[in-house]
Amino acid sequence: xxxxxxxxxYLIKTRGQQVTLSCSPISGHRSVSWYQQTPxxxxxxxxxxxxxxxxxKGNFPGRFSGRQFSNSRSEMNVSTLELGDSALYLCASxxxxxxxxxxxxxxxxxxx
Amino acid sequence: KNEVEQSxxxxxxxxxxxxxINCSYSVGISALHWLQQHPGGGIVSLFMLSSGKKxxxxxxxxxxxxxxHSSLHITASHPRDSAVYICAVPSVYNTDKLIFGTGTxxxxxx
Lengths: 112, 110
Fold this sequence. Notes:
The complex is a heterodimer.
Chain A: E1 5-7, E2 10-13, E3 19-24, E4 31-38, E5 42-50, E6 53-57, E7 64-68, E8 74-78, E9 87-94, E10 102-103, E11 107-111
Parallel strand pairs in A: 2-11
Antiparallel strand pairs in A: 1-3, 3-8, 4-5, 4-9, 5-6, 7-8, 9-10, 9-11
Chain B: E1 4-7, E2 10-14, E3 19-25, E4 32-37, E5 43-49, E6 52-56, E7 59-64, E8 69-74, E9 83-90, E10 98-100, E11 104-109
C-alpha cells in the first residue's frame, strides 16, 4: 500500500504570491490533516478534512485554506505569502476520526 | 487546553545505551501518539497508545493514564535512531486535532 504523498517536495516563492500544496492520502483513508512546522512554533495544526468537509481548523489566518476532493486527495492554499509562512507543511491521513495518523514527507516552502 | 511537555529537550547517547524520553500532558486523553522525525523532515508515526505498553522492535512505549505520563524507550540504541521524537495528544475539544510536544532531539554516537 502506497504511503501518503505530498507534492511538490520543495517550493520557493516570493512575498505576495500564492501557493497550492497537494496531499494524496493512503488509499482508503478519508481523513486528511494539515500541519505547519517552523523552528519557532514547532508543529501546529492547520485543518482537517473528512469526506470533502473541513471539520476542524487551527488558529491560522484566512490566507490559509484547503479543500478535499471526492477521491480524498487534499490541497491547501496560502495566499499573499509572507516571509513567516516559510515552513515545512505536513499532511497526515487516517482511516477514521481520532485514529492513527500517517504522515507524508512534507513540502518545504521557502518564501523570499 | 491540553499542554504537552517533553523531557529532555536534547539527549546524546553512546551506541548501545538504553534511552528514555518522557512526555507529560495536562488533560485526560483518549490516546497518545509518538512520532519520529529524521533530519530532512519526514515524520513517521511510531505508536498510538491509550493504555499499557506497546513494543515494536527496539522501541517500547508506555502510558500511565492516571498520572498523565508516557515514556518512549529505545533499547540498544543505534546511530540510525538519531532523530527528533515528538509526542502528541488530541485536543480536548477535538480529537482530530493533535497538540504536539516540542520534541526531544536524540543523537546516538557510535
